[in-house]
Amino acid sequence: MLEMASGGLLCIGAFFFFAGTLGLLRFPDVYCRLHALAKADNLGLGCLLLGLALQADSLAAALKLLLIWPLGLAASAGVSYAIARRADALGIAPWRRKDP
Amino acid sequence: MIRAMLQRSLLFALLWWVLVEGRPDSWGLGLLAICAALWASLRQLPPGSRRLSLTGLLGYLTFFVSNSVRGGAQVAWMALRGRQALQPAILEWEMALPPGAPSVLLLNTLGLMPGTLGVELTDDRLRIHVVDERLPILAEVAVLEAHIARMFGVGT
């Protein structure tokens, strides 16, 4: 039962990493790519860590795995803002739809 | 003061226990690390300067986790559909939160919430890149701001 839940979470996590990478390749500009990476990859990371924590040997090891998530989130949020702000300061205009 | 020191020491001890995965033979070094962390935390964040509301924190965390899931699913769906799913724009938001930790938390949370990304934060204005301007995004920012205000116990 635990094995199944863990496996399911790992697969879901892998799917979100895949979707984030797909967005990175397909989205038109730096801002939209940041959206794809920050959101999809963080959810993917959360699912992966939860799945791994279910298989951990001890409570402390499981908590250690879960501790990675908030650290990853903080880093990703900070870096996204830094990149977006720099792109904006360099005058990179956001991509707009031609046919609204 | 004493109470805050005890609470924080306990928290850092727990953190050390997690980091060494419960091994009992490393508490010598752990004690040193806990003292150093306590000293740094007292310097950076003196006790009594800011109290977080516990129910506010719980409300924020619930909101954060559920919206992370929604944000991830939304952007995954957009990635699968390609760029015809996008209609990006830059919106302006007037900050009602005080500068410092509450504003920074709002900015960083926005980067992880569905459809929003902070681009530039000045004293009282935030420019937000949104991935689809047809969505009611500013209303969601207002909800997030209310959660953060309640957590820090500040009015908006």
Strand content of chain B: 5-15%
Give the radius of gyration of chain B. Answer: 20 Å
The coarse silhouette of chain A is: elongated
Instruction: Note the gap between the termini of chain A.
Output: 49 Å
Based on DSSP secondary structure assignment, what is the total number of beta strands of chain A?
0
Low-confidence stretches of chain A: none
Briefly note the structural class of the backbone of chain B.
mainly alpha
Instruction: Determine the N-to-C terminus distance of chain B.
Output: 29 Å
Low-confidence stretches of chain B: none
| Widest sheet: strand ordering of chain B | 1-3-2
Helix-strand pattern of chain A, N to C?
HHH
Shape of chain B: globular
Total number of beta strands of chain B: 3
Round the Cα radius of gyration of chain A to an integer and report it: 17 Å
How many helices of chain B? The count is 5
Range of helix content of chain B: 55-70%
Quaternary structure? heterodimer
Biggest interface, CB < 8 A? A-B, 44 and 39 residues
GO cellular component, one term (chain B): plasma membrane
Subcellular location (chain B): Cell membrane
GO molecular function (chain B): monoatomic cation transmembrane transporter activity
Protein name (chain B): Multicomponent Na+:H+ antiporter subunit E
